[in-house]
Amino acid sequence: MLDCCSIAPRWMSLASRSGSPPAPNSLGAYWGMERCICWRSFAMRTALPSHRILSAHVDCASHSVFTLGILFIGRIYRHRYKRYTCKLLVTTCQRKMTNAFEFYGICFSMIIFSIILLSPPHREPPSRPPIIHNTPAAVRTVLDPPTTSMNTLLRSRASPNTRLHRTFHLSNTFVNPDPAVHAAFLRQSRALLQTAKRDWNRFNNVALQAVELSLPNPVIPFHVFVRAATLRTVIVGLLDPRIDITSLASSDLDVVGQLITDLWLLSKNPEHIPEHLLEMLNHRLRRLVPDDEKYPNPLDFVIPTFETLWRLVAVTLAHVHRDAAACGAFRDFNENPSCEQFQASRLGGTSPSVENYISETLRFDPPVRHITRHVDKQSLLTANLPRFLAAWFPPRTELLVADIETAQRTPFWESDKSSADVYDAARFLREPTASHLLAFGCGPLKCAAINWAPRAAAVIVGATLNRVDGVGHYIVRGPRIGGREGWDRWEVRTVS
Ligand code: HEM
Fold this sequence. Notes:
iron ion binding, 3-stranded mixed sheet, monooxygenase activity, transmembrane
């Protein structure tokens, strides 16, 4: 942060030029004012970017307020006691100004600037109600606004995600708008995905082992089972193939899965989040992902990969495990996890492919239901001001919500004969254009795993249906299909 102390230590020299040091009472006023004036000329000379000027001026503005405070107190004292101190205070300042007009002009502008610039550089989230966009076209406009720079897009995403930074201490591109952080995170994500994509048979074997190790004896809550199987697969199949899958302790996987869910739900609550929860989460996670050079903060990668994937797997399983045709498609895919098999519809093109089932889950129950953006809007006043002046006024920030879940159930989808509010993977056979899903976002910030994650989820579902086949193990349904939570009474049981 710029500090005006380093820019404008001129009061000393001015004081010495006036022949005597300023009187102690006038010192504060003099000091703050001089620093402010010098800072102003410095900023104008160097044309600093507005955010740096802002942060510099927060410091400077506090001096201005200090100055005004002293002047104000001086005036009260003059009124009450008519002491020479306050006269000295005002007259010393006035002596330094060539005329009274400039003196009062500067005071006035300092009041205005102080009011404007004391607003914190990191703006609070807007208090006005969010603006919901819930049609496919509107969602696209929020996520991929025309003529918007990458820097602005990154800022508009990171700002509403501060709760994730606060809760999980994430430092990735979802919470940090720095373009360098974005580039590095994307590079590392793509490298991981490339390696995983190279060998789907290996990934399939990892998923089979993960399911095997997560199976119950004799019973396990359904969501605990899916979380454990998915986390094992993500860690060994994507994040670090060197890890021995049998070394991942079930207790660590359970605690990590549960704490990520608990903290995510707590992050929506503005109240204090107990710090020991994150400490415990990081401690357990480090045992699962020990490479602290590659993953200095493992949550930066575990959250975007695992947190969405396990719910896609769980919801798909919940919809398909009683459907013989669907189970057949997933078991075939488990035998042969190729791209062709992923896309192959069955029974002469009348029965959906594995890809269709995953797409339908992404449409019907997207793991990311809403994406929020903070967008700065110019007021009428600032729109008509020159840019350098407009930069002084804090913009009006709007909270835009891209409601993906509603958008994917709009009449666009109802052009198909089955209702958009029904889970029906066959709609993708009748309506190929319906595959333009928004579940992975769109525009320059869309998901890096858009082509990998659906197939990876299908592999884990296939591996599960291979083992939880009603012969050795079976799924017990609960009253409703859950999401992050809400899987009451769902279980995986061993056939006795
Ligand atoms: C079912 C699984 C997943 C879903 C539904 C999903 C969804 C999304 C969505 C909606 C976004 C856009 C966020 C925004 O616009 O603010 C996104 C971004 C991203 N996702 Fe995923 N994701 C999934 C899995 C993964 C996986 C497995 C990876 C693995 C590396 C990944 C890596 C990323 C990255 C790097 C970005 C940021 C892209 C950028 O900023 O340019 N995602 N994801």
